Amino acid sequence: MTSEHTHATHPKIVTRLKRAEGHLRAVTAMIEDGKPCLDIAQQLQAVESAIRNAKQALIHDHMDHCLSDGATDRDDLKAISRFL
Asked: How confident is the model at residue 69 (pLDDT cuts 50, 70, 90)?
């Protein structure tokens, strides 16, 4: 898609994803350094949570934005809601 599609919440979502990226790098380092599995699992949980929160924020923002603008058809809303 070549057209720009930005919502006000996108910078916060990018921040969340960068946080998840940092957690994921930490997991890789922990595995390479032979850290305990419990510690690695806890860090993976942080990665999963950060990504889930970013995804939910993006989807909710899309639904709110597009419903208020009347710019999205019903099929689009159904399609994106499957990702929740």
From this structure: low
**Domains of the chain, CATH where assigned:** 10-81 (1.20.58.1000)
Closest of 28, 82, 19, 80 to residue 50, by C-alpha? 19
> Which residue type does 4 have?
E
Write down the pTM of the prediction: 0.72
Identify whether the C-beta of residue 47 lies closer than 8 Å to the C-beta of residue 23: yes
- Helix pair 10-32, 37-69: axis angle to 10 deg: 160
More confident residue, 66 or 46: 46
